[in-house]
């Protein structure tokens, strides 16, 4: 017995632990939303390219577009142009779109449109980057000034992160004579980034210029320059003006390197205007779209990977254990008597169509009339199988009659009575009649009321939309329920109704 108890405890612990682990993985690692009402941001970005084309030369327009390899994923990308050929190429971690036309003249307008959202998978994408670089050529006073600046930087830094941060801090100290010499009067962000790059190259620290746009609705903007350096594991991002580390969450990396955002051959006066707007979408729907538009598969092996019609069936099926758990608690802990375990759950499923109040009335009427017929058939001394056949046929006729009269009276909900499981009603009538004969009408009525109460509570719990979504999305919760059911299987204590029954006896024993 002790070995059996230990085995049961290990089994319960394993099931509960596995259920919690799988659910936590889905929520914390895969980022699947916990509630159906949860929404996520959906960004629409338009980049409008305008330029003046030369009538004599072919036109070739190139513009960087986001590589989308960091925290965002594209749901839709389109290139809108009139009579232009379009191609997209990858080069050195960047993506560049090329519009080309044999002939064009006058003012030209091209559009790039991107719909994106946050990347759902919480798993980090493995990144690669250089850990060493060659020094840039520098001579004369500039070399002396650079070495003078690097000496304290080396002294006050311990790794790549602190070295880059200290370098940015020193270059932004415009009162330093060495900095003044290197900047030569140009204090623009771009020029300061060049001096930072020069100093880091002398120390063989890799550095890249990254150009970002801020995801901010209804605000015109130009790309913002940031710097990044690879420390062997991750890219570290720095603001070249403030030394702030870490790229803000609302920044979208557009391109890297020294090249301009857009270049035009056969044209002039090229400008790019960014327009953004933000909307919200149901989080789980967005997760499905992410799965469809990327290689992500964190929903592929969930119930959302099933066909839609099958999903609707499983939304009902996964709630049956919840209903069974309600019956288990009502019977084993509270002591309510019902017609078995599964009969109340099946009746609860029928209430999904008839609604609770109308379903109770229909169940009561059909069961009462069926019991009357069963009592009459008992006097005919029929065998069980013919008797059940007659009762079943009577139930069908009764259901048809109720549906017909309900339709004539304009009670369309009465038509749903046909969805009641006829066999369940027939067996319920048969079992109640046997209980009536063996233990009396009072006990049969108590069992019938207990069955209706249990079915009603199960229906209410099984119909909670938040619970249906949670169990369907995180079916590993059912493993936790199994563990609880196993634990309940060894419960031998008093039920609440028994405490009430024995209350008088306990008072008598105390006296």
From TrEMBL:
It comes from the Bacteria. Pfam families: 7TM_transglut, Transglut_i_TM. Residues 260-505 form the 7 transmembrane helices usually fused to an inactive transglutaminase domain. Keywords: Membrane, Transmembrane, Transmembrane helix. InterPro entries: 7TM_transglut, Transglut_i_TM. The chain crosses the membrane at residues 6-28, 314-334, 354-373, 385-407, 413-432, 467-487. Residues 25-184 form the Inactive transglutaminase fused to 7 transmembrane helices domain. Signal peptide: none annotated. This is Inactive transglutaminase family protein. It comes from Pseudomonas baltica.
């Amino acid at each position: 017995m002790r070995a059996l108890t230990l085995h049961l405890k290990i089994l319960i612990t394993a099931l509960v632990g596995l259920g919690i682990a799988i659910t936590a993985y889905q929520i914390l690692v895969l980022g699947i939303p916990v509630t159906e009402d949860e929404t996520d941001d959906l960004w629409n970005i338009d980049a409008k390219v305008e330029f003046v084309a030369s009538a004599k030369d072919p036109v070739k327009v190139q513009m960087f577009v986001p590589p989308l390899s960091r925290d965002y994923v594209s749901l839709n990308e389109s290139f809108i142009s009139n009579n232009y050929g379009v191609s997209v190429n990858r080069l050195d971690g960047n993506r560049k779109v090329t519009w080309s036309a044999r002939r064009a003249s006058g003012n030209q307008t091209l559009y790039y449109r991107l719909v994106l959202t946050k990347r759902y998978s919480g798993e980090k994408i493995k990144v690669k980057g250089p850990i060493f670089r060659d020094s840039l050529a520098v001579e004369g006073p500039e070399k002396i000034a650079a070495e003078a600046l690097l000496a304290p930087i080396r002294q006050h830094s311990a790794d790549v992160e602190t070295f880059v941060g200290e370098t940015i801090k020193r270059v932004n100290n415009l009162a330093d004579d060495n900095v003044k010499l290197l900047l030569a009067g140009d204090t623009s962000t771009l020029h300061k980034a060049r001096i930072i790059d020069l100093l880091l190259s002398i120390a063989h620290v890799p550095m890249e210029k990254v150009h970002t746009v801020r995801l901010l609705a209804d605000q015109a903007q130009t790309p913002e320059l940031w710097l990044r350096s690879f420390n062997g594991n991750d890219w570290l991002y720095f603001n070249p003006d403030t030394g702030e580390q870490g790229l803000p969450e609302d920044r979208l990396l557009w391109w890297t390197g020294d090249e301009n955002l857009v270049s035009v051959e056969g044209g002039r006066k090229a400008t790019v205007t960014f327009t953004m707007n933000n909307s919200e979408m149901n989080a789980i729907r967005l997760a499905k779209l992410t799965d469809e538009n990327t290689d992500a598969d964190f929903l592929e092996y969930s119930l959302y990977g099933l066909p839609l019609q099958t999903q609707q069936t499983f939304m009902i099926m996964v709630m049956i254990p919840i209903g069974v758990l309600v019956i288990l608690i009502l019977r084993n802990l509270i002591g309510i008597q019902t017609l078995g375990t599964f009969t109340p759950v099946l009746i609860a499923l029928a209430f999904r169509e008839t609604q609770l109040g109308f379903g109770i009335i229909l169940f009561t009427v059909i069961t009462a009339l069926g019991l009357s017929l069963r009592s009459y058939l008992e006097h005919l001394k029929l065998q069980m199988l013919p008797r059940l056949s007659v009762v079943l046929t009577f139930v069908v006729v009764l259901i048809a009659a109720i549906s017909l009269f309900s339709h004539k009276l304009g009670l369309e909900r009465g038509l749903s009575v046909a969805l009641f499981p006829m066999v369940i009603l027939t067996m319920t009538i048969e079992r109640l009649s046997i209980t009536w004969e063996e233990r009396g009408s009072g006990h049969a009525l108590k069992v019938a009321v207990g069955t209706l109460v249990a079915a009603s509570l199960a229906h209410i719990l099984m119909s909670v939309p938040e619970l249906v979504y949670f169990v369907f999305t995180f079916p590993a919760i059912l493993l936790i329920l199994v563990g609880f059911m196993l634990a309940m299987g060894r419960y031998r204590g008093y039920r609440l109704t028994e405490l009430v029954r024995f209350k008088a006896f306990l008072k008598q024993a105390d006296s």
